[in-house]
UniProtKB/TrEMBL annotation:
Residues 1-23 form the signal peptide. One of its GO terms (molecular function) is pectin acetylesterase activity. The keyword Transferase does not apply. This is Pectin acetylesterase. Belongs to the pectinacetylesterase family. Hydrolyzes acetyl esters in homogalacturonan regions of pectin. In type I primary cell wall, galacturonic acid residues of pectin can be acetylated at the O-2 and O-3 positions. Decreasing the degree of acetylation of pectin gels in vitro alters their physical properties. It is found in: Secreted, Cell wall. One of its GO terms (cellular component) is plant-type cell wall. One of its GO terms (biological process) is cell wall organization. Its EC number is 3.1.1.-.
Length: 419
């Protein structure tokens, strides 16, 4: 009986690992298999720990459809909330879910048949790990806060506002954001003493786009900050000399009507597509912002720098799946990408209100996974983990501007290796 229970648990955890780590990957990535070492899986989901996974149910936002706040297919948006307790009862952490984007009618029609475009396909409950964990030994600074994951079902980082009647598509990301915030304010967030808006991947971009809007929800006396995890998507030149991400974002912004919701401080100066890139936004954000990113972001390597379109001969195939197989020339190209990232954050780094944790790993999204957020062998920069760095920054215990030395100097990374 125990062996059967163990097998079932392993199967559940495999599904959970794939779901959590693929949070930033678009539809093209859905069939990819992620390999992490056995130790990392154990640390992340408690196979070697007596602590059970915290599973939090889905709540649909009733009445959101009356405000036009619906998923791509017209279904109600949703969220998962685990109430705070003790000293954290009046503190709120909002995690915006990631999951790529859709930039064409065809892609969005497909997307509405998945959990990324319809609440009909969303999990009825999901695990809260990493920054969402309720255990102090897994999440020392935020474990007893009100912790929320706002589900992502619009395909434009919660920023679109339009529709395509012929395809029965609703681009209502901005309205979902507003309806979600209104719902949470009614749930008690209006009286928060402190609040943190976070997000991973496309959700990390959303946390940048909505950071100052989030600040405006609260009185000046409330401590409010924002965290972007793996959201620093760069307007970089790919291996073919083109700009894959710019082409992708151009489609997203135009199709979903995001222009009207992008920061005016940017759109008054630049083309709206360029204002979907964090590098053109972050210097004008007034609210304290923490950027957590891998310098060799696994998603950007696969889908931006060396996508199938940019690499038709598959010269980057092995390197994309496993960094250990990269050629010297390919590593040199990736070092150039890292330099672009460091250049993009120069302005943010000048203010001590902001925080940085840029490690030299081949990873994507490090705040939601337990093994990369806070564990015995978590990634570190100068002997400090991601969780402690974010906590030190949020509570103003010490300034945090941690930038790793270039690959391959960091032996604490939990690098992603794909099939």
């Amino acid at each position: 009986m125990k062996s059967m229970q163990g097998l079932c648990l392993v199967l559940v955890l495999v599904v959970v690992v794939f779901s959590v780590v693929q949070a930033g990957f678009g539809e093209a990535e859905e069939e990819k298999v992620l390999y992490v070492d056995h130790r990392a899986v154990e640390t992340n989901y408690g196979l070697s720990s007596p602590n059970p996974l915290l599973m939090v149910p889905l709540t649909l936002i009733k009445g959101a459809d009356a405000k036009g706040a619906v998923c791509l297919d017209g279904t109600l948006p949703g969220y998962h909330l685990h109430p705070g307790f003790g000293s954290g009862a009046n503190s709120w952490l909002i995690q915006l879910e990631g999951g790529g984007w859709c930039n064409s009618i065809r892609n969005c029609v497909y997307r509405k048949t998945t959990r990324r475009g319809s609440s009909k396909f969303m999990e009825k409950q999901i695990p809260f790990t990493g920054i969402l964990s309720d255990k102090p030994e897994e999440n020392p600074d935020f474990y007893n806060w009100n912790r929320v994951k706002l589900r992502y079902c619009d395909g434009a980082s919660f920023s679109g506002d339009g529709q395509d009647e012929a395809s029965q598509l609703y681009f209502r990301g901005q309205r979902i954001w507003l309806a979600g915030m209104e719902e949470l304010m009614a749930q008690g967030m209006h009286s928060a003493d402190q609040a943190l808006l976070s997000g991973c991947s496309a959700g990390g971009l959303a946390s940048i786009l909505h950071c100052d809007e989030f600040r405006e929800l609260f009185p000046a006396t409330t401590k409010v900050k924002c965290l972007s995890d793996a959201g620093l998507f760069l307007d970089a030149i790919d291996v073919s000399g083109n700009r894959t991400m710019r082409n992708l974002y151009a489609g997203v912004v135009k199709l979903q009507g995001a222009q009207k919701n992008l920061p005016r401080s940017c759109t008054d100066q630049l083309d709206p597509t360029l204002c979907f890139f964090p590098q053109n936004l972050i210097d004008n954000i007034k609210t304290p912002l923490f950027l957590l990113n891998a310098a060799y972001d696994a998603w950007q390597l696969q889908e931006s720098l060396a996508s199938r379109v940019a690499d038709p001969n598959n010269d980057w195939h092995d390197c994309k799946l496993n960094h250990a197989r990269c050629k010297v020339s390919q590593i040199q190209f990736l070092q150039g990408f890292r330099n672009q990232m460091l250049d993009a954050i120069k302005g943010v780094s000048k203010s001590n209100k902001n925080g940085l944790f840029i490690n030299s790993c081949f990873a994507h999204c490090q705040s939601e996974r337990q093994d990369t957020w806070f564990a015995d062998d978590s990634p570190m920069i100068k002997d400090k983990s991601v969780a402690l760095s974010v906590g030190d920054w949020f509570f103003d215990r010490v300034g945090v501007s941690a930038i790793d030395c270039p690959y391959p100097c960091d032996n604490t990374c939990h690098n992603l290796v794909f099939k």
